[in-house]
Amino acid sequence: MMQNHYFILLLHLLLHLTGLAKSDPEALYDYCVAETKTHPNIFLNSVPCINPDHTLASHFWTSALSEGGSMNQFDFNVTLTNVNNLGGLNTLGLAMARIDIAVNGLVPPHSHPRASELTILLEGSLLVGFVDTSNRLYTQRLRPGDSFVFPKALIHFLYNTDISSPALAVSGLTSQNPGAQLSSLAAFASHPPLPDDVLRKGFKINGQDVARIRRNLGG
Ligand SMILES: *[C@@H]1O[C@H](CO)[C@@H](O)[C@H](O)[C@H]1NC(C)=O
Fold first, then answer.
1. Among 12, 41, 88, 212, which one is most buried in terms of CB atoms within 10 A?
2. Ligand 1 atom 1: residue of nearest CA
C-alpha cells in the first residue's frame, strides 16, 4: 500500500515538473495557421485556425525580419514574428526576434513573462545580462557568433557599448507571444500613472525626481 502511495506521489511530481517545463499550450493539430482577418467575438488562448484545405506554403514564410524597424527613444528596435506576419506560427510555442541596437544604444532592463530567450549576436559587440530572483547579476560580453540565454521572466538588458558600429542580434523565444515589460516604463510611464507616493517610497526619491524621470521617459 505504502509503495503504491509513493509511486502515485512520484508520478504526480513528474507530471507537475514536465507541465512546468512547457511554455505555450500543447497544439492539437499539425499546424493551425492563424485566421487573423476576421475579428472574433470569442477569444481563445491563441488565434483560431484557417481551414487546413486552404493552407499554403506562404503561411509558413515571412520576410518580417529581413529589415530592422525605426529606432526608439533608447536607440534600439525589435522586430518580432507573430500570428499576423507569420500565421503558421500559431500554437507552435515559439517566436523569433530581430534586434537592432544603434551605436551606444540600450535595450533597457525588461522581462518576457511568457518566454525564455536565446540570443545570437550576428554583428557588433554587446554587453548583456540578467538579474535572478535573489538579485544576483550575470553579465557577459558578446562577440559575433556568441549566444546568451535569458531565463523566462527574469529582468535582462542588451547594451551596445560600441561607439562606432551598430549591433544586430537574433533571438529565439519559447512562446508565440512572449510579451515584454520594460521596468522603467512600467514604473514611470504607465497609463494611468502610478501614484507619486508609490514611486517616491518605492525608489526612495523625491517628488521632483519622480516628475523628472516621468518627463524623460515620455510618461
Ligand atoms: C520597431 O520598428 C517598427 C517599424 O518601424 C515599429 O512599428 C516598432 O514600434 C518598433 N519597435 C520598437 C520596440 O522600437
1. 88
2. 69
Query: What mean pLDDT is predicted for residues 151-158?
Result: 98
Ligand 1 centre to CA of 79 (Å) is 7
- Nearest atom of ligand 1 to the alpha carbon of 76: 14
| Spatial CB neighbours of 33, under 8 Å, sequence gap ≥ 6 | 49, 50, 52, 55, 59, 60, 87, 88, 90
C-alpha of residue 80 to centroid of ligand 1, in Å: 9
Domains of the chain: 52-179 (2.60.120.10), 189-217 (no CATH)
When the pLDDT of each residue in the chain is averaged and rounded to a whole number, the result is: 91
Q: Which residues' Cβ are closer than 6 Å to ligand 1?
A: 69-70, 72, 77-79
For residue range 103-126, list pLDDT tens digits in order: 999 999 999 999 999 999 999 999
**Which of 30-34, 46-50, 204-208 bottoms out in mean pLDDT, i.e. has the lowest?**
46-50
